[in-house]
Design a protein that fits this description.
Structural class: alpha+beta
Largest sheet: 8 strands, mixed, barrel
CATH architecture: Beta Barrel
Helix content: 25-40%
Order of helices and strands: HHEEHEEHEEEE
Strand content: 25-35%
Number of domains: 1
Shape: elongated
Number of helices: 4
Number of strands: 8
Radius of gyration: 29 Å
Distance between the termini: 66 Å
Length: 210
């Protein structure tokens, strides 16, 4: 009977006693009450939805959101092949047969440095398929024109700052002392030749980071 009474008392008053004891400890700073938390699924869902929207936007241009470039003004859109060695002819020719090349050793969108993309140009629309001349109309770009880069399911928008013709051996635009992010697009000039290089430089104005 005594054991039964003790057991009944524990079941009836045990939780109350436990709460009182815990409260006393908290008052003395011995233990702290941990607030119950639940995952903020609304934030996660919003991020997932943003990524989906970016993927769909890239697809609407016929490219992926993994790495691609879109230039609305000249109706240019292409996937980008990352880390292509511009000094290795076999390497870059293979890459350029598939899309625009990202120069190995340069930065990626969202990083503090120069993002360098290059592509063939050509002298005839009949050669577009052969040369994959995505940057054929790059010369039409002017200051203020927009360039969109999709990278790792994020969207980056750049604004053209400058355009110039350079010697093939001129690499001053890759000056490491030039701080901050910039985008450089390069192709041959005149189209279909290797005489000179057409360089378009742009600065970042918008980044979408879900």
């Amino acid at each position: 009977m005594i054991a039964f009474s003790v057991l009944a008392f524990s079941f009836s008053f045990g939780p109350v006693i436990q709460k009182e004891f815990k409260y006393k400890l908290q008052e003395k700073g011995i233990v702290s009450e941990k607030a119950e938390t639940t995952p903020d699924f609304s934030v996660q869902e919003a991020e997932a939805q943003k990524i989906l929207e970016i993927q769909k936007e890239a697809q609407s241009y016929g490219v992926t959101s993994y790495f691609s470039v879109v230039i609305p003004k000249i109706d240019a859109a292409s996937n980008v092949i990352a880390n292509v060695d511009p000094g290795n002819r076999a390497d870059y020719l293979e890459a350029l047969s598939k899309g625009v090349a990202h120069a190995k050793g340069t930065y990626f969108p969202g990083q503090t440095g120069t993002v360098f993309l290059f592509s063939h140009s050509t002298d005839s629309p009949l050669n577009f398929a052969r040369y994959n001349a995505v940057f054929y109309l790059l010369k039409k770009l002017e200051k203020g024109d927009k360039i969109v880069i999709f990278f790792a399911d994020k969207k980056y928008v750049y604004e053209v700052e400058d355009k110039k013709i350079a010697d093939p051996k001129d690499v001053s635009w890759l000056d490491p002392e030039n701080k901050g992010e910039k985008l450089v697009l390069m192709t041959c000039d005149p189209p279909g030749t290797t005489w000179r290089r057409l360089l378009v430089t742009a600065k970042p104005i918008i980044s979408t980071n879900p």
